[in-house]
Write a structure and sequence with these properties.
By secondary structure, the protein is α+β, with helices and mostly antiparallel strands. It has one domain. It has 2 helices and 4 strands; from the N terminus they run αββαββ. The chain has a 4-stranded antiparallel β-sheet, covered by helices on one side. A hairpin with a 6-residue loop joins strand 3 and strand 4. The longest helix has 18 residues. The radius of gyration is 19 Å and the shape is elongated. About 15% of the residues have low confidence.
């Protein structure tokens, strides 16, 4: 009898996890911006015609969006880095936000 009860619960949990398929920072198929060791933006990448992740387009989008996010904090220079896919290395960047 217990097996009958567990099967619907497992199916519901698996379905909920599949439906909530958000990109995860630092994984294949994403470009991730980091500030002070914390992910501030994760951009999911599409696949190109060859079936590979389209990282150049993904990174371009990330590099356009991050300054907007950081400059909402006000003027100053903000240091951040980005990671392509699951690569271990991160590339350092800086965004200079002006007043007004």
């Amino acid at each position: 009898m217990k097996k009958l009860v567990l099967v619907p619960v497992v199916v519901l949990i698996a379905g909920a996890a599949f439906a909530d398929n958000k990109p995860v920072a630092g994984t294949d198929g994403t470009a991730t911006a980091w500030e002070s060791g914390k992910a501030i933006l994760v951009v999911p990448c599409d696949k190109n015609e060859e079936g590979n992740w389209d990282y150049p387009t993904c990174v371009r989008s990330l590099r356009e969006k991050v300054p907007t996010i950081l400059c909402k904090r006000g003027p100053g220079t903000y240091k951040w880095s980005f990671q392509v896919g699951s690569e271990k290395s991160k590339l350092d960047q800086a965004t200079n936000c002006k007043a007004g």
